[in-house]
Design goal:
By secondary structure, this protein is α+β, with helices and mostly antiparallel strands. It contains 8 helices and 10 strands. The N terminus is likely disordered.
Length: 252
């Protein structure tokens, strides 16, 4: 299953506001007269409170208008309060990453996935599709990890060391979230490491009949993407388990 899909369409820019029609001196005088009447009818304290209220309202509207993608799309209840304790789960160690595997999930990596890159063609060999892949017994729920060179996701002259080098949570969504999906939540997660903090981006969305929880991180020029997916019909029962598995991704 591909987690690196097409860019969502860009919203058209709003047209610039037309030049306001200048008011005549008569209308301005009328407005000023009304303001003076209002001021005269209010005490000094009431007028200050009224002015403060309008100022706060104006700032609030500006704040909402410039609210970040993460804040507007996060459902903290669906993320923070709906995560299972995965410490007792089997931990799989891959090439530069580790991830917890839900109980009763089986390794479904194909033999060609293990052998990819080991032929006589060396670096020109076909790259592995998945770095890890596990599935439930009926195959309807899948946990996968993909590793991609970060410069294939975003052209840059410098080696990406953190996912923030690919952009903000909103900007990186154009890389990791397919267009036309229903985005349920998005979040920036910072994990303390020996040399500072590692940033992970989390996205949860629905596409067709599938519900997907995706976590991405970058290290040493490589992007690590963990995705857990299941049909919408199973997400109510197993969503916490799958979300927790995706969030257990650790870059080593």
């Amino acid at each position: 299953m591909a987690f690196l899909l097409s860019l969502p369409p860009h919203l058209p820019k709003s047209p610039q506001n037309p030049r306001p029609t200048p008011q005549t001196p008569k209308s301005i005088s009328t407005v000023n007269l009304k303001i003076r009447r209002i001021r005269n009818s209010l005490s000094r304290r009431d007028f200050i409170l009224l002015s403060t209220t309008f100022s706060v309202l104006s700032l609030t509207l500006q704040s909402l208008d410039s609210q970040s993608f993460a804040e507007s799309s996060i459902s903290s209840k669906s993320i923070l309060s709906a995560i299972a304790n995965t410490t007792s789960w089997f931990q799989f160690f891959g090439d530069g990453f580790a991830i917890r595997v839900p109980p009763q999930f089986e390794d479904v990596m194909e033999p060609e996935d293990f052998n990819a890159g080991l032929s006589l063609y060396g670096d020109k060999a076909k790259p592995k599709t998945f770095a890890a892949r596990f599935a439930s017994s009926d195959g309807s729920e899948v946990l996968s990890v993909i590793i991609k060179p970060s410069n294939q996701l975003k052209i840059t002259f410098l080696e990406a060391k953190d996912i923030t080098d690919l952009g903000s949570l909103k900007e990186a969504a154009k890389i990791f979230v397919p267009g036309g999906v229903t985005l349920y939540s998005a979040r920036t997660i910072k994990v303390k490491e020996n040399e500072g903090f590692r940033t992970y981006y989390f996205y949860e969305f629905g596409r067709d009949e599938q519900h997907v929880a995706l976590v991405a991180a970058v290290n040493s020029g490589k992007a690590f993407i963990a995705g857990a997916t299941a049909p919408h019909s199973k997400w109510d029962d197993d969503g916490v388990k799958l979300r927790s598995a995706a969030l257990s991704l650790t870059v080593l």
